[in-house]
Amino acid sequence: MISGQSELDNKIMLEQAKGVKQFLTFIMADEEYGVDILTVQEIRSWEEITVLPNAPDYVKGVINLRGTIVPILDLRLRFGLPSIEYGPLTVVIVVKVNFEQGSKIMGVVVDAVSDVYSIAEEDAKTVPNFTDSDNSEFVAGLVNVGEKMVALLDLKKTMKIKCTH
Amino acid sequence: MSIDLSQFFEVFFEESFEGLDAMEAELLNLVPGEEDLETINTIFRAAHSIKGGSGTFGFNSVSDFTHVLETLLDQIREGKRELTTEHVDLLLKSVDCLRALLSALQSEQEPDLEEANALRLKFEAILGLGQSEHDNPNSECADEQQAEVNTYQIDFKPYHHLFKTGNEPLYMISELAELGELETHVSHNEIPDITDLTADDCFLSWRFFLNTEKEERVIREIFEWVEDDCDLTITLCGGLFSEDDTAQGAEENNPDSKIEPASSAPINTQEVKKAVVSKAPPPATESTSIRVGIDKVDSLINMVGELVITQAMLTQLGEQEITEATIASLQEGLAQLAHNTRDLQENVMRIRMLPISFVFSRFPRLVRDISQKLNKQVELKLLGEQTELDKTVMEKISDPMVHLVRNSLDHGLETVDQRLAVGKDPVGIVTLNAFHQGGNIVIEIMDDGQGLNTTKIKEKAIANGLIALGDELSDDEINELIFMPGFSTADAVSDISGRGVGMDVVRRNIQSLNGSVEVSSATGIGSTFTIRLPLTLAILDGQLVKVAKHTYIIPLISIVESLQIDITKVSRVGKDLDVLRLRDEYIPILRLYNIFNHQGAIETLDKTLLVVVESDNQKIGLLVDDLLSQQQVVIKSLEANYQKVDGVSGATILGDGRVSLIIDISGLIKLSGLRKPGSQELIIESQANLEAS
């Protein structure tokens, strides 16, 4: 047991040394997106939420996460995709985002959680410059996992909320 | 084995600042010629602990400076020297200077020694030159700068029992490293087989090459404590070893020291590296702490004890079969639990409470300095110093209070001549009074000066366009004008007040603490500023209201009354502002659902509920769908993970776990003004109409 643990540790250390990171991926509008798994705090199901007045439409509101007030963003609305009704598969991924002013705990609503992949940093390709799309700024890189393409999110930019006033 | 001294820095700084406060307070009590030995002893002791502490932690700038100060105090204490006003002034200045030095060190900045050196020269002038030369490390430094740079070979072979004597070679090595360039070689030949190895014996020996300007004596001093526990030879080699060698030596040193006894190896490797290779300061740890009386902690422990008993009782009940009788005792137990929790909550809140004397204590000095500068005679009276106040509130209230006290001294109190001319005691009195009233703490700042000059205020207000020429205002209304932005009656910008930071800032700061400030004044008799603050910022009494399907909380303290709207008393002003006539006031109606953009709320006014709230002396009515319960809520920050939301001061978690937002009344008024341009003016206008009628 102990040796298994240390083997795992070794593997992780080895991977870190090679610049390999693990990414949690999720599905949104049939596309797969990934976030650095170390930023993920927990995954929750969708629950009743307290609406914030005069917030941008993609800010769904705030929830009580064991005594902390945590804002929840809808990633579909954030990306300008059509919103869908929340169902039993709808999940909230709670992430810790390191902003310049300090880290914040925030949640994102996505269609469903998919998988965890180990991705080497050098495999990530930069995003081609789609001229008119605002969304390209949210994507830090693109990677191929088997047949699929996964867009790695730049959380800092994605979770930045513009002031309404 | 090795102790990281930096963990005690915070305690040292805290104690030193406390010591400085004590010194300051005692110095202010000192009257030259009739000094009390006990007072001087107290000052001396405080200075002495600061010197001792700073010496221990290596803050030499502080300890050197405190040393001269202490020498003077010592002479006064022993009666060798008469205490003069000059001494007291100088000592007070050095308290300020020490405070600045310590703050700089605390924030890990290089302290500015200019003032300290200037003050030290003054001390030395008083003490006489002979002594000062001896104490001045500057001159020592100067001597040594001219000294030759020598290389010493130091062979240090501690006996095996060195650690048992409580000595740590690492410290000696780091001390050596401070003397100059140090090259370290470790010999680990003596380390026995693992089976014979005892972890608390020292098997290592060292050879150092030290490149220093210091004399051999200084090096020997480092090893003073271990002289009898080691073989030590220090030989002068002369000549320099090259830079490259040093670096190499340091590098070699690290792998070597890894072969140290297992128990100490990890720590030592790191520490040696730190001492020899880099002297980078440890990362700053920002933490604030409060001192809590043991009685408060004891009572908390008692309460937790009771809570545990209640919980045990409830668990027992839960295991029994449910009958009528168990339900009754279950309810009883739950009531007990509620009681315990409330007590516990109150007591936990009390931990944050500190006596207001923490704020008051800075005023004697302030008053002394300012009155000297203004050439006025002032007596400061402090009342209710034991009144307790939340620490956060305390930190934020002290600046507005300083401002108000300065104002009282500068504008309120007259000069000695003026006071004599109107037949008053030449000594003006400024009183600071704190007491509890209801759920609030009240702080009064009173002076027996000339009172507010209503004519001058009115002229100024007209000149600034705050009021119109023909406006008839009562004295209270005129006094209220000083809190308006951009108002300052000071004829010239002085050092003390009138720097453009007006009373409006004072009021805004106090309002940000959910407090209020008022002024009352009588010409020729004096003026009183009254600050009202909530006891704590963390908890408030709230009224839960319903808007559409959302629950909001209105702070109970700002609610004047709640009523059902009688549509016949509503009239429309302008395009979209409804005003309710309530007795002889006009209350603008703000539709919460409109401001917060919620759909599905009751939109008709007739028979709908209106919560009348007051903020900034302005009453407004908030249209709500329903009034729910009243309860105490714990304020949680929205900004921690999100950002500021206009019209909302924070959030809380309700009994069922849902989040509810707390309405910020003054923010709401601003928001409604923003969203409907012109309505802000209308509110004021309707208020003005009322006043005119």
UniProtKB/TrEMBL annotation, chain A:
UniProt-listed InterPro entries: CheW, CheW-like_dom_sf, CheW-lke_dom
BP GO annotations: chemotaxis; signal transduction
Domain annotation CheW-like: ranges: 20-164
Gene Ontology annotations for the cellular component aspect, listed alphabetically: cytosol
SMART domains: CheW (SM00260)
Subcellular location: Cytoplasm
Claim: Cytoplasm is one of the keywords in the record: yes
Pfam families: CheW (PF01584)
Keywords of this entry: Cytoplasm
Coiled coil start-end: none
Superkingdom per UniProt: Bacteria
CDD domains: CheW
Chief place of localization: cytoplasm
Protein's name in the database: Chemotaxis protein CheW
TrEMBL record, chain B:
InterPro entries membership: Bact_Chemotaxis_CheA (IPR051315), CheA-like_dim (IPR004105), CheA-like_homodim_sf (IPR037006), CheW-like_dom_sf (IPR036061), CheW-lke_dom (IPR002545), HATPase_C_sf (IPR036890), HATPase_dom (IPR003594), His_kinase_dom (IPR005467)
Pfam families, sorted: CheW, H-kinase_dim, HATPase_c, Hpt
Sequence positions bearing Phosphohistidine: H48
Enzyme Commission number(s): 2.7.13.3
Gene3D superfamilies listed in its UniProt record: Histidine kinase CheA-like, homodimeric domain, Histidine kinase-like ATPase, C-terminal domain, HPT domain, SH3 Domains
Residue stretches making up the Histidine kinase domain: 334-537
Lineage: Bacteria, Pseudomonadati, Pseudomonadota, Gammaproteobacteria, Alteromonadales
Domain CheW-like: 539-674
Domain of life per record: Bacteria
Reactions catalysed according to its record: ATP + protein L-histidine = ADP + protein N-phospho-L-histidine
Keywords tagged on the record: ATP-binding, Chemotaxis, Kinase, Nucleotide-binding, Phosphoprotein, Transferase, Two-component regulatory system
Protein purpose: Involved in the transmission of sensory signals from the chemoreceptors to the flagellar motors. CheA is autophosphorylated; it can transfer its phosphate group to either CheB or CheY.
Domain HPt: 1-105
CDD domains, sorted: CheA_reg (cd00731), HATPase_CheA-like (cd16916), HPT (cd00088)
Name of the protein this chain belongs to: Chemotaxis protein CheA
Spans annotated as Disordered: 245-265
Keyword Glycoprotein annotated: no
Any GO molecular function: protein histidine kinase activity
